[in-house]
Amino acid sequence: MTDFLEIYASSRCVAEHHDAYQTDELTACYRANIGELLADSGVSHIKREAVLTCNNFPTTLFLVIPLAALPWKIAAPVWMALIAGCFIAACFCLWSFGAGSEPRIYGALIFLIMVNSGQLLSTGNTAGLVVSLAVIATCCFLQERFVPAGIVCLAVALVMKPHDAGPIWLYFLLAGGIHRKRAIQTLALTIAILLAAVLWVSHAAPHWFLELQSNPAASFSSGGVNDPGPSTGGGFGVVKVINLQAALSFIRNDARFYNPVAYVVCGALLLAWCVKTLRSGFSRKRSRFALAAISALAMLPTYHRTYDARLLLLTVPACALLWRQRGPIAWWALLLSVAGIIITGDLFWVVLFQFTRYSRPSITWAMIPTPLVLLAVGGFYLWIYLRGVPMSAAAAGESPDTPARKVIAGFVKP
Fold first, then answer.
1. What is the separation, in whole angstroms, between the first and last Cα of the chain?
2. Rounded to an integer, what is the distance from CA 342 to the centroid of its chain?
3. Cα separation of 413 and 7, whole Å?
4. Model-level pTM?
5. Which of the pair, 68 or 239, is modelled with greater confidence?
6. Which of 159, 14, 106 minimizes the C-alpha distance to 324?
7. Cβ contacts of 414 within 8 Å, gap of 6 or more
8. What is the pLDDT of residues 298-318, one digit of tens each?
9. If residue 96 lies in a helix (H) or strand (E), which one and from where to where?
10. Residue ranges of the domains in the chain?
11. Which residue in 124, 294, 336, 382 has the most C-beta neighbors within 10 A?
């Protein structure tokens, strides 16, 4: 729960009118409220840096106030239960979204994602909550059910991790019609939360903006915790960095090389996606491919780790829709979707590193293919989205609002 420990300590620090973005003040607050856990000889320098350097937005600290008021031994399991509950709810919403037409492919892919997502609980990162809320909001908007709840979910996700939830919000904004209205309503609530959080934090940390900019700088430098290159101090393992820079750094380990290349490659793909969305507007069939493409591509240009890749839940409806068509394109969709889930999941890497003991060749092999597989997944669904695929009458008529009793009947029907 290292990631949540940092949020908890930072939120408590601000609540006690101290500047959480100053490492000295955060450390003092941590020792006063939580104890000397990080002073143990067995605790690595990387963990100390992760916990005692506040890199979260004021909005995250603001929303965690109720938990920060609790003792750590109570707050940690409550946060874990919140992530687990929201993630299970997101998976169920997505499954019920299309299980009336393809219950087995929906069930199999979602199950594969769930069993590869233990890191959401072990790290306590906000990605577990943000991805879940973004998926729930997507289902609400596409089905036109519980729309106010969807607006709240997406707004909370946006203020916590805009680089995860932002692309989903952007789709609804560009798609037009009623969905643009939902996006604008979400933005209004997001701004309200942002203003409240900034006013709260500014009393204790008037220079929080400049401090927040400088805090992550060291972690992204060579050898830092978030360095995407081979010399990283914490970018490998099960929760490795997955943005495109991680693969490009093995060609040339220089931020002046891999950052511009990643921005150009991803920028071209995202621009094509934006233009297509603006021109074509919204349709239920196209929305599946648009969201599948952006869920993979959005993780490539900027800092992301494997827990952010649970956003690949949004590739499931697109894969299921193609699977109904059968043929080579259906198999390619299934192959790439499964590869994306496994390569960004837990189980494969746990087994690999257990046998290799985190040897340098295994770490190198881990960091290179993951962004490339995500690029292949995003590129494939973007190609489908741009090109369009003729749907059979059955596939094109897939209903996104199948009643629950029909969904269950589809499973037990002989």
1. 45
2. 15
3. 47
4. 0.88
5. 68
6. 106
7. none
8. 999 998 888 999 999 999 999
9. helix 72-98
10. 97-412
11. 294
